[in-house]
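Section 5.1 Outputs to date
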Amino acid sequence: MLDMFDMCTPELQSKLKPMRDAFKEDEDKKVEQLRMSKTSEQGTAPVSSDSTEKKEEKKALPFSFEDDPGSNNSGFYELQALITHKGRSSNSGHYVAWVRVDETHWAMCDDDEVHTVDGDSVLKLSGGGDWHCAYLLLYAPRVLIQ
């Protein structure tokens, strides 16, 4: 995740605060649910009614300001795709595209071959020597699902 909050003006930071607080509340809720599920697995706490009820349909909250289409109302961005170069120089080597499929899987597009890889494979793209080096990174606003 890329957080651009510190690069914003104080006025914009104050506009970003409500959505950032919503992200924090959502993350805190997920941590609490994880903690509760771990304690219920140990038999020390009852299973919450949320887990036994039918899951309600979730929807994405708006990620831009109403008066500014295309903006980002949180300052959080998630990596969606990247292009890497593998080789010692720009004149030789090979370019590969990596595209996010879902939270844990990416598509590695290598010429006419496409392979599904896990997120850990993308984290290993740190460059150096003959290994893949990030050339172009494409980010999109982080979306809160509720």
